[in-house]
Amino acid sequence: MNDLPDNELLSAYLDGEATSAERRQVEQLLAASPAARETLEQLRALSNTLHSLPQEKIGADLGPRVLRLAERRMLTGEQRDSAHVEDAPVPLGPSLLGRFTRPRILIWLTITAIIAVIIRVNEERQGKQAARAPQEAASAPATSGEPSEPSRITAYPSNTKAAKPTPVGEPSESARSLAQSLRVECQEGKLPPPKHSADRFAPAEPAAGAKRGGHDEPSGASLVRRQPAEMVMVVHCDVSPQAAKRRTFEKLLARNGVVWQHYGPAEAGQSSSPLEVVYVEAAAGQVQAILKGLAGQRKAFPSFRVQSGTPYHRALTNQRSETPMQRVIFVLRMRDGTATAASAAASSAAAATSTKVADPSATHPPK
Amino acid sequence: MTDTTLPSDAQLVEETLGGQPEAFGKLVLKYQDRLFNAVLHVVGNPEDARDMVQEALVQAFLKLESFQRRSAFYTWLYRIALNAAISHRRRLRPMASVEGAGATGRLQPSNREADPAAVLDCKERCRQVRQAIAQLADDHRAVLVLRDIEGCDYQTIAEILALPVGTVRSRLHRARLQLRDVLKEMLVS
C-alpha cells in the first residue's frame, strides 16, 4: 500500500468506490495512522464544501432556441464557430428532418401541400398556353391593378457568377392568388388560419390526389408523403429597412442566378411596403445558397424561418433525393414595418404581378 | 417522491427521433441547468458556459441518432458538453498541469489579500473555491467537477471522459489534494 498522501484509496474509500479488499486496507491504515485519519477528514470537508456550492442556473429555457438553431443548421449547413465542437459533421437526412414534423407543422404541411397541388394542377391545365406567355407578356406588359400572366424569364443577370441561371416556371393564376392570399393574411398580422385555408382550398385536394396518386387522398399530409418533390417551401424572413431599400434580397437571388417573381407592390416600385411575397423556382443547390446567404447577413436579415417539415425542407437536405427544381415562396417582412399609407396604396396594387429579371440593378439601380 | 408520470429520458429520446422535437425541449429543460453548472466550473466564464451548453444541446439534437443508448442520455450529453468545454479551455489558455504547477507543485491560494471578515461570507467562500478549481489542470478539474459538484460515480465519469476508472480515481485524488492545500485555511475554519 502506498504511503500518504498519494494513496488514492482514501478518495475511493470516501466516495464508497473502493472494493471490499480495498476498504479493509484503508481501515487498517486509518487505525494505524493519525495522518491518514487527518487526510481523510480534510478530504471529507473539501468534498462537503464542493457539494455545498450553490447550483448556478442558466436562466431561460434554452429549448426553443436550441431547436431553432438546429433547424437552421440543417437547412443551411451552417457551421457555427465550430471550434467549440470537435465532432464529425452532422449527418443530414430525412430522419433528422422528420423530427420537426410535429402536429402544429402538419397543419402548415397540409396548407402547403394543397397550395402546391393547386399550382401543379393549374399549370398542367394551362399547358401550352403558358408556354406562349413570354411573347404575350413582352408585347403586352401588365398594367397596375390588372393581373396578367407573368412572362418566362429570358434574360439573366450580368453579374451572375458560377450559378447557372434557372428559368422560372409558369406560375399560374392560382399560384398568384395563393401567394397573394398568403401575403394578405400575413399583412393582417396572422398566419393563415388552418381551418379557413383548408376549407378554401378543399375542393382542389381530392382532384389533385386523384390526378397524381390515382385515387383520392384524405389529407394534405398524405399528399406530402406521396409527392415530396412537388411541394412548395415557405420561408418567412425579416428584412431590415436598409436592406429593403437596397434590394439586398433580390441581389442575393441574382448572385445565385435565381429568377423570381414578386406578388404585391414591389413591382410597382413601392419597396417601402412592410411585406412582400416573392416566388422562386430554383435548383436545390441554389435554394440552399440563398438560405446560407440569409443566414450569413444577420444585419440585413435579422431572422428567417423555414416552414418546418415541408417536403422541400426535407428534399433540400437529402442529397439522395432528386429534386431538380424547387418552388419557394419567400414572405419578406420589414422588421420595423408598420401599416403605412404606402402599404395601403400597395394593397390596392397588390393584384398586379410581374416577373423580374434576375438583375436588380436593371430595375432598381443601386444608389 | 418520484413523479411516475414523467417520461423517462429514453422515452423522450424516442419521441424526438419519432418527430416530436418538443420532447427534446423537455430534455433540454431537464438538463440545461445541471449542464451549465458543470460547464461553468470547467470554463470559468458564464457567457462561455452558456454558449457551450447551448451548442452542446444543438449538437446533441443533430446527432441524436448516433446516441447508442449504451449509457444514460445525460452521460452522453455531458460527454459532448464537457469535451467541448475542455477543448475550448485548452485553446484559450493552456493550463499548467497539476504536476507542473510551480516548483512546489502547489497551487497558489487565492485572494490572500481579501478582508478576513469577508472570507467568512458565503459568496466570498464560493468565489475562492471556484478560483481554486479554476487553477486545476483541465483534465483534473473535469473529474473533480463531475464527482464533487455533479455527484457522478466513477464509472459514469469514466464514460463521460472516456477514461479508465483507475485514471479517474487517481486524477480525482490528486485534484482533491491540490484543492485541499489551496483551501486548507477555509476548510479548517
In words, what does this structure look like?
The complex is a heterodimer of chains A (367) and B (189). Chain A has helices at residues 9-14, 20-32, 34-51, 63-76, 94-97, 103-126, 128-131, 133-139, 173-187, 194-201, 204-213, 220-226, 241-246, 248-255, 284-296, 311-317, 341-348, 360-363; strands at 232-239, 260-263, 275-282, 304-306, 326-334, 353-356. Chain A has one domain (98-363). Chain A is α+β, with helices and mostly antiparallel strands and 367 residues long. In chain A, 48% of the residues lie in helices and 10% in strands. The radius of gyration of chain A is 30 Å and the shape is rod-shaped. Chain A has a six-stranded mixed beta sheet, with helices on both faces. Chain B is mainly alpha-helical. Chain B has two domains: 8-94, Rna Polymerase Sigma Factor, Chain: A, CATH 1.10.1740.10; 108-189, Arc Repressor Mutant, subunit A (Orthogonal Bundle). Chain B is built from ten helices and no strands. Residues 94-114 of chain B have low confidence and may be disordered. The chains are: A alpha+beta (367), B mainly alpha (189). Chains A and B meet through helix 1, helix 3 and helix 4 of A and helix 2, helix 3, helix 4, helix 6 and helix 7 of B.
Report, as a whole number of angstroms, the end-to-end distance of chain A: 82 Å
- Element-level helix/strand string of chain B: HHHHHHHHHH
Helix-and-strand structural type of chain B: mainly alpha
Helix content of chain B: 55-70%
CATH class of the largest domain in chain B: Mainly Alpha
**Shape verdict of chain A:** rod-shaped
The CATH homologous superfamily of the largest domain in chain B is termed RNA polymerase sigma factor, region 2, helix turn helix motif
What oligomeric state do these chains adopt?
heterodimer
The residue ranges of chain A in which pLDDT falls below 50 over 5 or more consecutive positions are: 81-94, 101-106, 130-172, 184-230, 265-271, 309-322, 337-367
Q: Name the average pLDDT of chain B.
A: 81
- SSE sequence of chain A, one letter per element: HHHHHHHHHHHHEHHEEHEHEHEH
Radius of gyration of chain A, in angstroms, nearest whole number: 30 Å
Largest beta-sheet characterization of chain B: none
Give unreliable regions of chain B as ranges. Answer: 94-114
State the total count of DSSP E strands of chain A: 6
